[in-house]
Amino acid sequence: MAAAEVSTTTLSMLDDHFDVDKLTYEIFSILENKFLFGYPKDQHLMHAANAPSGKVRILSIDAGGSTDGVLAAKSLAHLEATLRRKSGNPDARVADFFDVVAGAGAGGILAGLLFTRGKDGRPIFTAEEALKLVLQNAGKFSRPVPTGILRRVFRPAKAEKLFNKVFGELSLKDTLKAVLIPCYDLTTGAPFLFSRADALEMDGCDFKMAEVCGATIANRAVELRSNDGRKKMAAVGGGVAMNNPTAAAITHVLNNKQEFPFCKNVEDLIVVSLGNGEMDCVASNQDSTPSAYIRIAGDGAADMVDQAVSMAFGKLRTSNYVRIQGNGIVGKRSINITNTNNNWDEKSNNVTLDAIANKMLAQKNVESVLFQGKKLAESTNLEKLECFGGELIKEQEWRKTSCVLPPVILKQSSLSSSPPRSSSATTLSTLSSY
Question: Which of 5, 26, 150, 209 is the most buried (most CB within 10 A)?
Fold first, then answer.
């Protein structure tokens, strides 16, 4: 039987048994013609195969920084309010407008709060609720330890109790979108990414969200096991592994063709990267503790990622990539001093953190230029968030009205019949390729 007859007969059979809408018809036609009979000859199908498929939207959130996660939390609260206002949906959530979230340290906690599915099918926290939780517990998320930062001990009981209360038995499989949360595994001596995609398709990769959050903020090694008991690790915080997980998120998308089949390069991405304030230079010069050096190293690594990603976007870095970060705020020094004080004053410190984060949002965004330092942008951090909120809504509306192929096909089942892709942790070696 001729190829065209097979195609017509097959589609006719489908029409007899299923209610095939236009999008399904186009997807089936393209796949059938491309993989069974070569590239489509029909001009309509060729146009559909080459039609724009939208952009993959990535949210990346740094580790605690000088604000213990408050700057990113306030940025997200402002972004969610902007999305609700501009979309006209009072119940809109951050997770509705992103396809991928990567968060390290306190950023990993925010990712878990905003992208884990509750009983009603919606995220368990709004951005405003997440901000309140971060403010109430800021000192627990990235508080330096004066000695033995990598000592092998269990996580603090208070943080463990908090995460168990928030997440219960929910695991990576219960997240709504592609979630990536890093830690450093002392067992293998390598960074590890807790990944929703890996949890759904690979043994030994699903972990409880409470334990994932505990691992990514751990300033001392913690032990955890996967839900099936196949994998065991000794983890320290994501801020040690990758303070700024933006590059890891981009690499995950570009390598994961099962969930992002039409994403080829940065032109197909919209990336929002949220910092949490850099360590004050004056304070760092007066603090020679190991924890201070680790913070300096984390800030430097985060800046390098920002510079490299910004250069990778090239001319698109003003339209497809935005970095929110706080710099040079008077008062950060007092935070660093307070954090190293054994008499932790949560109430006064949280008021200071909140005020400083507000000042950082009102700053003009400082942009990195590869190997050339930094320059002051024309827009403030708040203006940047406002602008990109509009871009996220445009993409959302485009997807509602477009009949072309979807840019994201997230896994929904626990196992896939197709060959598993590479683990997210192994794709880190390909970062230099992009």
Answer: 209
Q: Are strands 100-103 and 178-185 parallel, antiparallel or unpaired?
A: parallel
- Amino acid type, 179: V
Cβ burial of 237 (10 Å; 0-12, 13-18, 19+) is buried
Q: Are 174 and 166 in contact (CB under 8 A)?
A: no
Kindly report, residue by residue over 214-270, the tens digit of the pLDDT: 999 998 889 999 999 999 999 998 887 789 999 999 999 999 999 999 999 999 999
User: How many angstroms separate the CA atoms of 154 and 215, rounded?
Assistant: 10
Other C-beta atoms closer than 10 Å to the C-beta of 108 total 34
CA dihedral for 399, 400, 401, 403, sign (positive or negative): positive
End-to-end CA distance of the chain: 45
Angle of helix 346-362 relative to helix 70-87, nearest 10 degrees, comes to 50
The encoded tokens of residue 415 equal 């196992």
Taking the C-alpha atoms of residue 274 and residue 76, their distance in angstroms, rounded to an integer, is: 9
How do residues 262-319 score in pLDDT, each as one tens digit?
999 999 999 999 999 886 554 445 555 666 666 677 777 888 898 889 889 988 888 8
DSSP secondary structure, 24-83, as one string: HHHHHHHHHHHHHHSS--SHHHHHHHHS----EEEEEE---GGGTTHHHHHHHHHHHHHH
Closest by alpha carbon to 123, among 209, 251, 206? Answer: 209
**At 364, which amino acid appears?**
K
Considering only CA atoms, give the Rg of the chain: 23
Residue 45 one-letter amino acid: L
Residue 279 — φ and ψ, nearest 5°? -65, 135
Token duo for residue 260: 């992002």
Triad 91, 93, 95: Cα angle to 5°: 150
* Pair 133, 83: CB distance under 8 Å: no
Most confident residue range from 299-303, 322-326, 328-332? 322-326
How many Å apart are CA 302 and CA 102, to the nearest integer? 14
Whether 140 and 160 have beta carbons less than 8 Å apart is answered as: no
392, 270 Cβ separation under 8 angstroms: yes
